[in-house]
């Protein structure tokens, strides 16, 4: 039997599938690997890569350190060291159910039996795909979306994503760019069927990654009704639910609904990675009323188990409402808000449009004016240019965005901001100023409107020009227009202003409360340098 | 499209694959689930199931508690809370490499780059199968074997095991029952090819599960040479390597070889579950020089990640040679030896044959005399009978043993022994005495020979009769012979003697050293009751 071992770059030691897995490389993974080999470090590697591409919240390690080193975290009993229920220990599922009941404002107490805990949401995606889909089946997803889900569904479970592209220009109805509608979902489903695919579900993210969009419960219900009409599973990813940092905005979980359109096909994901800034703790949770799904997931759970000791620690944390409500959440929100405000202020001052949303750890920014032409090759060149200059961002094609030139920029990085400041001396002209290509002055800057309410008509506005009232995405509209600055100015300005940032000054005292002397020392050194 | 949803017991919410996964139930899993629903507990559930089926070492929680609650375990830094290398943090891979270099007696320092750490060896089996095999490919394995590997290879990766049955009777050469030979491997490979299967590798366990057999390095090298001749990957599972409790016996890892026959196709597995009695900590490690394999595994690593905090703790533990060498290993071995000696003494006194091996946490015992007839239905009935009477064992068919009537009995359970003692009053006649069916008095007891050296001719001897010098497995030979005791006597005797066990008295003082007051209290109560 031949096994595809003969292909270029293939290993004779691996199977066809193994070679395919080994050689698979998404842009997000590639960037992260490069970052892994050349991480910026203040003293050890000052010329290393600064990571604004990975969605991690690096603003709250002091708070986490303080809590995670309290004595209740160091608990051992025999059952924690033994094999356990592959859905997670009962005590943890109980804690998760209570936590979600409270923070998702569920009208009725959620049940521990409906909770499955695994080592990350990627594992949950993989498992769910394996049990609701057969190989080669597909799941609908609006684009852009968090690109790693492609691998989560494909690598083990051989399930495809079928893309439902969202327009980057606001449509005529409520002027929201990248607006998700039931019509688009229906249209996508129809297309998939025409292509002969079996669609088993739809993935919905709220708050959205990478858009940071917050959908109202009413909107979500209409999406869930679409799923019900078509007997699709709805996988609702709410891993950013506690990152909403504008007090005037309320996130509404689908679990807050009095009743779900199709509870047996609605599965809600949450985890510690984003809301509690602990991607490294490997905790993803699923809430579903579907017993069959829970039973099937339990069978795969042995591949995705979480150490008993970690389960204990997470349960302690989730049960500590005082810490969550009085310490962590308010401070985290304050810091996220300040960091976002600083970042968006910089983008504004440089005339870079972006979606202004008070949630998540990143902004979705329109760098189309820096592309020589509107192509994904050009976008990739720009991404590589940033990487060459040791700044890792995430470009739109990594999220399967249908229009080139959009980037996700993570702002939730305190130490990184300071490090950027240090880098200022290296700031040089990185790219030639893009030639003005048949554009107007449109789309160069943005109206800094905060999202006042979920259904607001906030939008990506253009300077001196109303948003064009077109529902479709014209190539010309997506072409970058006359750039106000060159790319080196973008980077240089960011670096310069970060160092002298008012935000930095204001934010400092609270940030230095960490108990770990090592962290505190590093912080102090960085701070002094940044203030020079 | 139909999806098999219509089958009996199938869920309309799951795919064909999903239903197959959900409805899949091995005997080991079934037993564990029943145990999970009805665990014995001294006060809360005194009539619950006593677990002698799951291979866990429950003898050393006091030692582990003491070590795992030391201050160095409670360490937090930002990198532990962030995404990391999916092969495991560098500091942990470094610690594993040093640990294996020392305890496997590697002639050269093992390299951290050749180490992959995942959340358990099941995850490693799943990943390795995915990347060295295509769907429907197969891997050779001698039977009996640790049955869960079937699911590890099949559930996600759709890889089969091809069985190479070992004879339960000693063959003519060295009188070792269940003897593994190159000839049997060659024969199995030939059969597999004739059946049109693509065989990609062979799984070798040393010390063996469930046989507890210890293979010499010389033997292992001949197996590895077989693999090399046939271009098969050799997956060498050494997870019980530190459980050898007879000082006169030395375990030799394949990593101690001066050179391996085919280093690019030799992959050595180890983990914390057995040797450090921490199945719940979810740590499996792989050592391989094959860079392609490591790269491919890294791609699947996101599904099998270990929390950074746990990685730190495990690294601390593995680096603490003083604790390992001076405290844990000697005491663990002493307790394992005592527990094994007690268990085998009981089996001997009841005339139950077993493989007498100074390693692992279990004995492989011949309960054929309790079968009404030599069939797997009968074996299952016996297993269910034990379970009805609240004793969970593992029967041979769960390990794909080719002859019915063999059981794996886990002895490494201190608390459990005490609990069994409490149960004595419930001891009743469980089964009718088996009718004498055409057998002699053979095979009713065993000669209690300890394994004096790796190549010793220790064997499963029969009372008043030499081992029959036949290399093949005849059905008649495997029929149970005239039983000396009924099954209720077996259980009753075990329970009675456990309570009055001399071993218990001797072992007590060291066992009560735990720092956790809760554990200590429970222990004291159990002890008092057991001594009544």
Could you give the topology of this structure?
Two copies of one chain form a homodimer.
Chain A (H helix, E strand, L loop, with lengths): L15 H8 L3 H11 L12 E2 L9 H8 L9 H4 L8 H14 L11 E4 L2 H12 L5 E6 L4 H7 L5 E6 L16 H13 L4 E7 L11 H13 L3 E5 L28 E6 L12 E5 L2 H10 L7 H12 L1 H29 L4 E2 L6 E5 L9 H13 L2 E2 L1 E2 L10 E5 L3 H9 L52 H4 L8 H13 L2 H10 L5 H15 L1
Parallel strand pairs in A: 1-11, 3-4, 3-5, 5-6, 6-7
Antiparallel strand pairs in A: 2-8, 7-8, 9-10, 10-13, 12-13
Descriptive notes:
The structure is a homodimer of 532-residue chains. Chain A has helices at 16-23, 27-37, 61-68, 78-81, 90-103, 121-132, 148-154, 182-194, 217-229, 291-300, 308-319, 321-349, 376-388, 414-422, 475-478, 487-499, 502-511, 517-531; strands spanning 50-51, 115-118, 138-143, 160-165, 199-205, 233-237, 266-271, 284-288, 354-355, 362-366, 391-392, 394-395, 406-410. Helix content of chain A is 39%, strand content 11%. By secondary structure, the first copy, chain A, is an alpha/beta fold. Chain A starts with 15 loop residues before the first helix and ends with a helix. Mean pLDDT of chain A is 81; it is low at 1-5, 415-485 and 492-532. The longest helix of chain A has 29 residues, at 321-349. In chain A, strand 3 (138-143), helix 7 (148-154) and strand 4 form a beta-alpha-beta unit. Chain A folds into two domains: 24-62 and 329-531, Aspartate Aminotransferase, domain 1 (Alpha-Beta Complex); 77-324, Type I PLP-dependent aspartate aminotransferase-like (Major domain) (Aspartate Aminotransferase, domain 2). In chain A, the strands form three sheets. A seven-stranded mixed β-sheet of chain A has the order 2-8-7-6-5-3-4, with helices on both faces. Chain A has a four-stranded antiparallel β-sheet with strand order 9-10-13-12. A two-stranded parallel sheet of chain A has the order 1-11. Chain A has 18 helices and 13 strands. At the A-B interface, helix 1, helix 3, helix 4, helix 6 and helix 7 of A face helix 1, helix 2, helix 3, helix 4 and helix 6 of B. Chains A, B: InterPro entries: Aminotransferase_I/II_large, Ethylene_sulfur-biosynth, NHTrfase_class1_PyrdxlP-BS, PyrdxlP-dep_Trfase, PyrdxlP-dep_Trfase_major, PyrdxlP-dep_Trfase_small. Chains A, B: Residues 450-478 are annotated as: Disordered. Chains A, B: Keywords: Pyridoxal phosphate.
């Amino acid at each position: 039997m031949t096994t595809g071992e003969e292909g270029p770059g293939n290993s004779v030691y691996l199977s066809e599938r193994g070679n395919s897995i080994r050689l698979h490389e998404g842009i997000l993974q590639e960037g992260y690997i490069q970052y892994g080999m050349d991480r910026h470090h203040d003293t050890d590697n000052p010329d290393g890569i600064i990571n604004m591409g990975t969605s991690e919240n690096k603003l709250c390690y002091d708070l986490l350190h303080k809590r995670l080193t309290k004595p209740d975290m160091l608990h051992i009993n025999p059952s924690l060291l033994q094999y356990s229920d592959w859905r997670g220990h009962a005590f943890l599922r109980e804690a998760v159910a209570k936590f979600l009941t409270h923070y998702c404002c569920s009208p009725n107490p959620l049940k521990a039996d409906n909770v499955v805990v695994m080592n990350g949401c990627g594992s949950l995606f993989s498992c769910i795909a394996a049990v609701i889909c057969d190989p080669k089946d597909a799941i609908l997803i609006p684009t852009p979306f968090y690109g790693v889900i492609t691998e989560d569904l494909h690598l083990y479970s051989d399930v495809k994503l079928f893309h439902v592209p969202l327009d980057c220009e606001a449509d005529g109805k409520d002027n929201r760019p990248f607006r998700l509608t039931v019509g688009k979902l229906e249209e996508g489903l129809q297309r998939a069927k025409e292509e002969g695919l079996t669609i088993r579900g739809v993935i919905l993210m709220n708050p959205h990654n990478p858009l940071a969009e917050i959908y109202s419960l009413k909107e979500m219900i209409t999406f869930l009704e679409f799923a019900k009409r078509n007997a699709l599973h709805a996988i609702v990813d709410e891993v950013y639910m506690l990152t909403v940092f504008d007090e005037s905005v309320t996130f509404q979980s689908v679990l807050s609904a009095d009743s779900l359109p199709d509870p047996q096909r609605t599965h809600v994901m949450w985890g510690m990675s984003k809301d509690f800034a602990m991607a490294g703790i490997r905790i993803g949770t699923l809430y579903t009323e579907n017993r069959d799904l829970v039973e099937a997931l339990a069978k795969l759970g042995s591949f995705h188990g979480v150490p008993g000791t970690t389960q204990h620690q997470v349960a302690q944390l989730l049960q500590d409402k005082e810490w969550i409500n009085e310490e962590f959440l308010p401070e985290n929100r304050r810091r996220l808000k300040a960091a976002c405000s600083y970042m968006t202020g910089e983008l504004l001052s440089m005339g870079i449009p972006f979606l202004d949303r008070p949630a998540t750890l990143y902004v979705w920014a329109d760098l189309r004016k820096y592309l020589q032409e509107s192509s994904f090759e050009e976008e990739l060149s720009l991404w590589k240019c940033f990487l060459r200059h040791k700044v890792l961002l995430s470009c739109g094609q990594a999220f399967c965005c249908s229009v080139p030139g959009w980037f996700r920029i993570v702002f939730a990085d305190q130490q990184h901001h300071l490090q950027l400041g240090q880098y200022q001396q290296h700031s040089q002209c990185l790219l030639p100023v893009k030639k003005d290509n048949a554009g107007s002055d449109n789309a160069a800057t943005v109206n800094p409107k905060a999202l006042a309410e979920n259904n607001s008509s906030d939008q990506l506005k253009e300077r001196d020009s109303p948003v064009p009232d077109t529902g479709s995405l014209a190539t010309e509209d997506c072409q970058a227009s006359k750039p106000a600055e060159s790319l080196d100015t973008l980077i240089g300005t960011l670096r310069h202003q970060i160092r002298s940032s008012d935000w930095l000054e204001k934010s400092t005292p609270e940030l230095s409360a960490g108990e770990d002397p090592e962290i505190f020392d590093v912080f102090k050194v960085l701070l002094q340098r940044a203030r020079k």
